[in-house]
Amino acid sequence: xxxxxxxxxxxxxxxxxxxxxxxxxxxxxxxxxxxxxxxxxxxxxxxxxxxxxxxxxxxxxxxxxxxxxxxxxxxxxxxxxxxxxxxxxxxxxxxxxxxxxxxxxxxxxxxxxxxxxxxxxxxxxxxxxxxxxxxxxxxxxxxxxxxxxxxxxxxxxxxxxxxxxxxxxxxxxxxxxxxxxxxxxxxxxxxxxxxxxxxxxxxxxxxxxxxxxxxxxxxxxxxxxxxxxxxxxxxxxxxxxxxxxxxxxxxxxxxxxxxxxxxxxxxxxxxxxxxxxxxxxxxxxxxxxxxxxxxxxxxxxxxxxxxxxxxxx
Length: 313
Description:
The protein is mostly beta strands. It has a domain at 26-107: Sandwich (Immunoglobulin-like), CATH 2.60.40. It has helices at residues 2-24, 287-290; strands at residues 31-34, 39-43, 51-58, 61-69, 72-76, 81-91, 94-107, 111-113, 150-158, 161-167, 172-177, 183-186, 205-211, 214-220, 240-244, 253-256, 310-311. It has a 10-stranded mixed beta sheet with strand order 4-3-6-7-1-11-10-9-15-17, with no helix packed on it. The protein has a 3-stranded parallel beta sheet with strand order 8-12-16, with no helix packed on it. The two termini are 57 Å apart.
């Protein structure tokens, strides 16, 4: 019975020590770190008087091997790499592994982009080759997509490191945010597509046709230019919700959730040119056939999108 109690007590102590070590050791294995100034604070279980050997590897290449006194070390590293680190305690008789190899990734891209898509431009109207035909109307531009709702959550960890969670339309990205790093959130509305231009009207045509012993004249009036398509409306900016769960000194959070620009209306198509009519026939040919056709109407510009909101519940 006594032996069973001793074994159980040793097991509980081992579990407690292991749990405490996991809590004191930072960054945890597999952590994703984020910071514009990538200085990573390493921390492990130990006392301030002991000496330790800290080794850091990037892609299996050693980038740091340093002896330190105490259980903390700030290391400046290159972002965009996969790192492993380990700690050994130094003693007179040698050293023994204290922290087995752990890994983390480091990124300096603090911009999170969730902008709405821009609308596609409308097609231009066709210009017919047949005499007297009106130019085709330009197609309307598509409306820009609204910026989505985005949620930002910040929670304290330790040593001014924050846990960052950014949730967009379909994914949640989680990082440990290093001290002094700002955050940029963009959820702009998409720009409206431009309207298509109106097609040109066909030119007029005058011709003579012989019929037995006399001449008949006939003509085509020039075609009116096609109307330009309307520009698409800009999408509205998205709503960004920022939650600070007990963060005493939050980082700078810059939000760009402006509405998208409206698309430009399509240009009016030019009217067809007047035909060349001999002076002998101009007296009885209607004026409609003798002057250039009027152009089409230009398309209206699209309305801009509305500014989004920033909510701090």
